[in-house]
Amino acid sequence: MSAPRFSPDELWPGWTPSSTAQAAYGKHLTRIGQLIPALLYTQVMDRQGITAAHTAGCQDLVDSQVRSLVLECRDDLLETAAVLDALALCHGHGSYLPRPYQETGHPVPSGVELRTDASDVADQLVRHDQQHGTSTSGIIPAPLEDGCTDSERDAVRAYARREWITAQERWDVD
Length: 174
Fold this sequence. Notes:
This protein is mainly α. Helices cover 63% and strands 0% of the residues.
């Protein structure tokens, strides 16, 4: 049985993408909508598997599962960066939290928090691709540093978006 196909208007129950997210990801936004529940489920199941193997004292199985997770790290970073970026785009453009961020006790607007999270995960993708030479779309931006600017955060998000679209175009069978 194949995964259900969603229209861009019904990517995930309760979530309707913004026109900005649609413009940024185009036909590939549907796949992001499918990834939201899959990423959440996979995180839980991976942790359960490693925990069960560790509890049972199966070190070889723990080692094997950890190796598999390491190999999937880049794909996970890319998928998570794309999902967070699409969700952040639904909240419009705007500012980010400072880096490093220190809790102030004041509520942070969800759009600001999503944009910041999206750029932080995209930064991890940038660092991974620089270290391992795994970029598929071209020039990798500089990684984020403390005190980085909003435009630097935008650049790492744009890079993750390009990487996502490049990966989708390679596997596009439509």
